[in-house]
Amino acid sequence: MLNLPNALTCANLLSGCVGIVFCFNGDLKSAAYFVILSGIFDFFDGMAARALNIKNSIGKDLDSLADVVSFGFLPGAIMYHLFKASDAPQQYLSYFGFIITLFSALRLAKFNNDTRQTVDFIGLNTPMNTLFIVSLPYVADYHPQIIANWLFLATISVVSSYLLVSEIKIFSLKFNNLKWGENKIKFIFMILSLALFVWQQFVALPIILLLYIGLSFVYFKNK
């Protein structure tokens, strides 16, 4: 049982690796399912560690290493492929998508050393940012002309990278208890997110991201 958190973290890493394989085989939509799977493992490895009262630096470092693959390299690879399929005038511009990978790594390093982020986040967390990026191939089914615009993709890359290392306060989905009064904003976010995802699947993720940021402002304004 003492190895359970690290096993879940390794499952997160494996899911990210498989998602990257799908990505470089051109199947960006299937890669999104492995991001979801990585997110589930990432959520439960921390929960397992807290439940078993396990605190060690190896688990923390392993978690960051797994996250930089699943929620750093994978979204960068997806953006790289979207750039390649866009109207970019030069193919080398496709590498600009990996700016998300660089800032994801920077965000994870900051998180590990920022004592202000022991409960909630300062800057957008990498799993939520990745969920937004993996939604773009699905959004392309409805707005192909927008996703094919390399300037739009570059803007998305810059904005998401900025959010990762910004000073914007974002609430964590960790629960100390299940009392409605103490977790109202978190419950509202989870209920609305689930409803939106059931309704529109991956296309709903950009709206869920905006909802997350908006409710975070409300959450910290009322604290």
Give the strand tally. Answer: 2
What percent of residues are in strands? under 5%
Strand order of the largest sheet: 1-2
Estimate the mean pLDDT confidence: 92
Question: Which structural class fits the helix and strand makeup?
Answer: mainly alpha
- Give the biggest sheet: 2 strands, antiparallel
Q: Provide the succession of SSEs.
A: HHHHEHHHEHH
Question: What oligomeric assembly is this protein in?
Answer: single chain
Low confidence ranges: none
Rounded Rg: 17 Å
Helix content: over 70%
Total number of helical segments?
9
Question: What's the N-to-C terminus distance?
Answer: 36 Å
Shape: globular
Give your account of this protein's structure.
This protein is mostly helical and 223 residues long. The protein has helices spanning 4-24, 28-51, 57-84, 99-113, 126-139, 144-147, 150-165, 180-200, 205-221; strands spanning 121-122, 169-170. It has nine helices and two strands; from the N terminus they run H-H-H-H-E-H-H-H-E-H-H. Strands 1-2 form a two-stranded antiparallel ribbon. The radius of gyration is 17 Å and the shape is globular. 35% of the residues are buried.
Chain-wise SSE layout:
Blueprint lengths: L3 H21 L3 H24 L5 H28 L14 H15 L7 E2 L3 H14 L4 H4 L2 H16 L3 E2 L9 H21 L4 H17 L2
Helix pairs in contact: 1-2, 1-3, 2-3, 2-5, 3-4, 3-5, 4-7, 5-9, 8-9
Output the keywords:
72% helix, 2% strand, globular, mainly alpha, 223 residues
Brief summary of the model shown:
The chain has 223 residues and is mainly alpha-helical. It has nine helices and two strands, in the order ααααβαααβαα. 72% of the residues lie in helices and 2% in strands.
